[in-house]
Design brief:
alpha+beta, Alpha-Beta Plaits, 2 domains, 4-stranded mixed β-sheet, 16 helices
């Protein structure tokens, strides 16, 4: 009875009845209709939380209003608006057709899409090649970038080692692999810090390999030769003899060992032209020394762990220091000596004195650290050494100019004589 009354009222042009009939079909779909009839014009405002498909709703309303055959309605104006917006998103008007053959049957409207469907539709708006640029990943141009090569090397190197080494790799094999890995990291850092004007992979490898496989055996030989054997012998004595032994024995021999390839391959043949290049090659020689020393000490730590002299936590920490911190310290000290050898190349008239100063500074810092290793003073010595090396690098241009002036002055004095 109520439904038939609404239809009768709608046929008479009653806006309230028309709104009620329309909302019966629209409200389940999340749409609200407001209706106003004025001077033969029926105005319908459709509002929803989602944008409304204009043509779908116009078709629906045209059929519905025409089916009422309401003579007072001469024109229909429809507005579609999203709730919360100040202005309707669209507007359209039509003239209803009062054809008696049209039956008042509802038109199936598109059901509102669920949030899942909206999410899937949103995903389809993205291009696969834009969010997953696999072609760029496979292009050769990407791998020509220097930083990309560095990222790949440091990210994949341990995994590659794990693949190619046997299931039961020895401690020494693992130690060498770790030594190479961390030395490479410090090599990249030092290269970007120093920025050597001249760089050669060949000279870099020559310095690293010579120190690791030739320099260290020579070092072990000279440890048994006077006066160095006497300095090594007093390391276990009191504080002062211990310091003397570490500085004049360990410090001098190890720094000379690391400086030897710089002298043989670069300074003596006359290849050195600036202190930054020689500082970098000196640092790489120090990294080669640290790799070989780290492999040896790692084996000793393993024996100490087996005997119970070290617990597992101390074993891990000792290896971390040996492979991470001390390689940088060795590289810094050797870099200082290399730096002074580069200055010596600029000032050949005082070459021996300049090299002596470089070795003396590095040996003193080396010996002091060994004396106070394991306490706060040892930490300060390493920190000071790093900052001193950075200061040398930053003052290189000034020191080169001073050396060149000194050389010219010295040559002028010789000419006058």
């Amino acid at each position: 009875m109520i439904q038939s009354s609404l239809v009768e009222l709608a046929q008479q042009g009653d806006p309230g009845a028309i709104a009620a009939l329309l909302n019966q079909a629209l409200q389940p779909r999340g749409v609200m209709a407001k209706v106003l009839l004025m001077d033969g014009c029926l105005q319908i405002l459709l509002s929803s939380n989602r944008p409304l498909a204009q043509q779908t709703f116009i078709s629906f309303l045209n059929r519905q209003i025409s089916s009422y055959r309401a003579k007072p309605i001469q024109l229909v104006k429809v507005y579609g608006q999203v709730i919360g917006e100040d202005v309707p998103a669209w507007y359209e008007e039509f003239v209803p057709t009062f054809d008696d053959s049209v039956e008042p049957e509802p038109i199936e409207l598109a059901k509102p899409r669920s949030e899942t469907n909206d999410f899937l539709a949103t995903l389809r708006t993205f291009q696969f090649s834009a969010v997953f640029p696999y072609r760029d990943v496979l292009s050769l141009g990407l791998y020509q970038n220097h930083l990309v090569k560095i990222l790949l090397f440091f990210g994949l190197f341990p995994l590659v080692v794990d693949l190619i080494t046997p299931d039961k790799a020895s401690v020494q094999q693992t130690a060498w692999m770790l030594g190479i890995y961390y030395a490479s990291i410090w090599g990249v850092v030092l290269y970007n810090l120093i920025k050597p004007p001249q760089f050669s992979w060949r000279d870099t490898l020559k310095c690293v390999l010579f120190t690791a496989f030739v320099g260290i055996p020579m070092l072990l030989f000279f440890q048994q030769v006077p006066p160095f054997n006497a300095f090594y012998a007093v390391i276990g004595a009191g504080m002062v003899p211990r310091m003397i032994g570490f500085v004049l024995g360990v410090g001098v021999l190890e720094e000379l060992c690391k400086a030897l390839p710089i002298y043989l391959f670069l300074l003596r043949p006359g290849k050195l032209q600036d202190p930054l290049t020689s500082a970098f090659y000196g640092a790489t020689s120090g990294l080669g020394f640290a790799m070989a020393e780290g492999a040896t000490y790692s084996l000793l730590y393993r024996f100490s762990l087996t005997r119970g002299d070290l617990d597992f936590g101390s074993y891990v920490l000792a290896n971390t220091i040996r492979f991470v911190s001390l390689p940088l310290f060795h590289a810094i000290l050797a870099g200082m000596v290399g730096y002074f050898m580069g200055l010596a190349a600029i000032n050949p008239s005082r070459r021996s004195a300049i090299i002596f100063i470089g070795v003396a500074i590095a040996a003193l810092l080396h010996g002091l650290y060994n004396t106070f290793a394991g306490n706060f003073l040892g930490l300060l010595i390493i920190g000071f050494s790093i900052l001193l090396f950075v200061t040398y690098i930053r003052r290189s241009k000034q020191m080169v100019e001073e050396m060149q002036k000194a050389e010219m002055g010295y040559q002028g004095i010789k000419i006058e004589r």
